[in-house]
Amino acid sequence: MRIEAESVTMVIDGRKIIDGASLVCTPRTVTALVGPSGAGKTTLLYLLGLLLRPTSGRVLVDGIDTTGWGPRQRRLFWKNHAAFILQDYGVIEEESVAFNVTMTSSIFGSRVVGDHQRVKAVLEATGLSGRERELAVRLSGGEKRRLAIARALYKDATVIFADEPTASLDDKNRARVIDLLVSLARQGRVVVVATHDAEMARASDAQYTLGRS
Q1: Most-buried pick from 14, 38, 43, 114 (CB within 10 A)?
Q2: pLDDT tens, residue by residue, 146-174
Q3: Where are the alpha helices (DSSP H) in 56-155?
Q4: Cα–Cα distance between 164 and 195 in angstroms, integer?
Q5: What is the pLDDT at residue 105?
Q6: Measured between alpha carbons, how far is 162 from 192 in angstroms, rounded to an integer?
Q7: Residue 160 half-sphere exposure, CB side, CA atoms within 13 Å?
Q8: Predicted structure pTM score
């Protein structure tokens, strides 16, 4: 899958946040959106992920113009192709680690349903092995970030959008998250990160800089 922005502009409350951005995000590649705070990194990430609609310009998915897509088509894109790793982790803290991976449970709410072997495999890959039954609220910030990545692995998303994935992490967790994201790209996925972390940017294959004068 290929995600492309063509002359994308975004105006919010009369302020031009993104001005004519054009970039291509391709499989097996980590693309870093870089720039100072307030430059519009997260806004551009949301535009590429179809969470926002641009004021002008186009976002293409595999060459298809998404400008006219309605809510149903966008939801299908998110359901079938995309995974988001957001700054607030997107973790449901009162639920178990396993539930946060699969996002499904039985109708009685007490038993997680899904591929249990796959859950174990993705938790092992993200350093959370054996913690299926633990409540997510007990995880550290770095562990919650890795839990969000485990969810993307379980879903087998084609495109992963990550907003400041290494923010507020210690050196060990930062390195682990960077390695995981690069590994996901090498497996054939498109990985797009909004980051101010120089180490994350250096590990990426391509950079798009916002806020240049």
Answers
A1: 43
A2: 898 888 888 889 999 999 988 888 888 88
A3: 71-80, 97-102, 116-125, 141-155
A4: 5
A5: 54
A6: 6
A7: 31
A8: 0.88
